[in-house]
Design a protein that fits this description.
Helix content is 49%, strand content 10%. By secondary structure, it is of the alpha/beta class. The chain has one domain: Alpha-Beta Barrel (TIM Barrel). α5 links the parallel β4 and β5. The termini are far apart.
Length: 194
């Protein structure tokens, strides 16, 4: 296995880091948790030093991830498919993190309740990887899944679809900011508005 220090040149070239994080829900062997945390800390340290956005997986380790994000004073974080308890969620919201919602929003009352709590100014959409939603729909997720997710978000938030789409775009533009490493993305998002 490659040592983490061997990744440093590649990290410099990457415009953001993700999906990184901890998974204590699907990884049942607790002896692996320390290794997961060391890898996450490596990426968070680099993200802090390089002022990069992180896209973070928190499954079953929400409080542990939050404490690491706070320790490394990460300001630009996207929390991937949050499905954890209320307390870490509240603290993540207060820190201004963004939260992605994907296919599970279409079928889970619990995920819908999270989408109601997260301020609209902190909401993003996602499809996850092609296999991520397979357990929900029985088939791989494709990019066109974003449309029904956006429609569901609009319903949950009491907005029309166009307004919800504009807010999601604004949220992504805000997190990207004027980061020169992400100017191509920024230009694409802005040209989509025209």
């Amino acid at each position: 296995m490659t040592g983490l220090d061997e990744l440093e040149p590649v990290l410099q070239q990457s415009p953001m880091f993700g999906e990184i994080g901890l998974d204590f829900r699907n990884v049942h062997d607790a002896t692996l948790y320390d290794s997961q945390e060391r890898v996450l800390e490596f990426f968070l340290s680099a993200a802090k030093e390089q002022d990069k956005i992180v896209n973070v997986h928190t499954s079953g380790a929400e409080m542990e991830v939050l404490e690491l994000l706070e320790r490394y004073d990460i300001r630009r974080a996207i929390i991937h498919w949050y499905s954890g308890p209320a307390e870490p969620l509240k603290r993540m919201i207060l820190r201004g993190y963004l939260f992605t919602f994907g296919g599970e929003l279409l079928s889970s009352g619990f995920i819908q309740s999270i989408a109601r709590v997260v301020p609209t100014s902190q909401v993003l959409t996602e499809t996850d990887n092609p296999g991520g939603s397979q357990w929900i729909f029985g088939e791989p997720a494709m990019p066109d899944l974003v449309r029904p997710v956006l429609q569901a978000l609009a319903i949950v938030r009491g907005l029309d679809e166009a307004d919800m789409g504009a807010r999601v775009r604004e949220n992504m533009l805000r997190v990207v900011g004027d980061d020169g490493r992400l100017m191509r993305l920024s230009r694409m998002l802005r040209s989509d508005q025209a």
